[in-house]
């Protein structure tokens, strides 16, 4: 368990950072389950829950997956990956399903952070989507959406700053 | 402030429900700001923050917007709406940007719930996207992604149950 118990939600949301370097320490099964519980409870259009997951913990498999992205240095150090897939058999509207996948991923990222774990959302690997899908041996109705790397943060590397636009730039108007 | 202060993240995630009926009570500006703060801190690919927002609190405008969806009964009772837009000028990859929009919406939904507010993610209104964009008078580079209704829950209507697939159904394999 991390040191974030009792942290208020806005604090969890604002203090989360992409973590790209991990301690050589496995992620407990109990925590993987909590992260997937968070994923499972994401909202989706018509509650179609279009997500599927592959949990990767074998270090050799992780090493092989790392080769499909220019961010291999992040993946290869992570003790666990969650591969996030869209189940096209459950799809009712591709763009809404992809929004739901984003909500599901955010639940996982927040859950990792609240457990004291670090995570990185790797989207760049989609550039080699078909190759990764083939490597993972997944059926045609499942489509790669992202790979989430998870591990205990190598603390010296945690970025404390992160740029965000001001609210004034984001609000088009109030009516 | 709601009664959810100190609730653990997994509890917030699992107890959130779509709220479709609201008390006749405005949402405080302070809470709207917290919800948008949560939105602002969502992750996005290359940190491009492709989201923009319109805050709608005028009851007549809300009534007019409600006519663009079959869920008008939800929108018309809500004291506040946040219209979520994709800024196509900031887009670097449409599907990754749409995932980021989903993460941003999920931050808002969780924030609402943790403040004791209820929210509903209205995607069905995208069926009349162009008409809504025209009504809102937004420039061409902004695209409607969703409308989030926000208000204090009319408690008798809160659904306590919600179906989710078991984890076993969602995990394709562990490797």
The second-level CATH architecture of the domain at 33-152 in chain A is 3-Layer(aba) Sandwich
Mean pLDDT of chain A: 93
Order of helices and strands of chain A: HHEHHEHEHEHE
Q: Please give the largest β-sheet of chain A.
A: 4 strands, antiparallel
The percentage of residues in β strands of chain A lies in 15-25%
**Which spans of chain A of ≥5 residues are poorly predicted at pLDDT below 50?**
1-5
- Outline type of chain A: globular
Please, could you describe this protein's structure?
Two copies of one chain form a homodimer. The first copy, chain A, has 175 residues and is α+β, with helices and mostly antiparallel strands. Chain A has a domain at 33-152: NADH Oxidase, CATH 3.40.109. Chain A is 37% helix and 19% strand. Chain A has a four-stranded antiparallel β-sheet, with helices on both faces. The model of chain A is unreliable at 1-5 (pLDDT under 50). Chains A and B meet through helix 1, helix 2, strand 1, helix 5 and strand 4 of A and helix 1, helix 2, strand 1, helix 5 and strand 4 of B.
What descriptive keywords fit this protein?
5 strands; 7 helices; four-stranded antiparallel beta sheet; NADH Oxidase; alpha+beta; 175 residues; 37% helix; 19% strand; globular; disordered N terminus; homodimer
